[in-house]
Amino acid sequence: MASTSVSRVVPASPQQVWNLIGGFDALPDWLPYIPESTALEGGRVRRLTNPDGDVIIERLVGFDEAERHYSYAILEAPFPVDGYVSTLRVHTVPGRDDVAEVQWSGRFNPKGATEQEVVDLFTGIYADGLDALHKTLAA
């Protein structure tokens, strides 16, 4: 099983960040790569569409409001992986209440691609996503 993790410090308090990204259906609010999200099964499944029209279906597998994190599994996507589980987590930064650290991590099995190719793919997706989050919060 392969894994990757990317973290960024963003210009907002942990609660402000969580208020923006903590909703499982909130990706279009901060992630340009996902302009459309439809909540299914009472909000436990999201159907995402990217700008190319590709569909990604993900299931919420863990959620902790108090600790500010959630985990999800990909059910269907155009990515060369299976067994994908990812976590989006907001951390406090010691001694600071005006910034937060956001960590996006995932583990997965490569399928039809090398481990390095898949690690590079998701490292790029997470880094680009957290850069977009930073821009949204800085605006």
TrEMBL record:
InterPro entries the UniProt entry points to: Polyketide_cyclase/dehydratase, START-like_dom_sf
SUPFAM superfamilies to which the protein is assigned, alphabetical: Bet v1-like
Signal sequence annotation: none
Domain of life where this protein originates: Bacteria
Protein name as it appears in the record: SRPBCC family protein
Source organism per UniProt: Streptomyces litmocidini
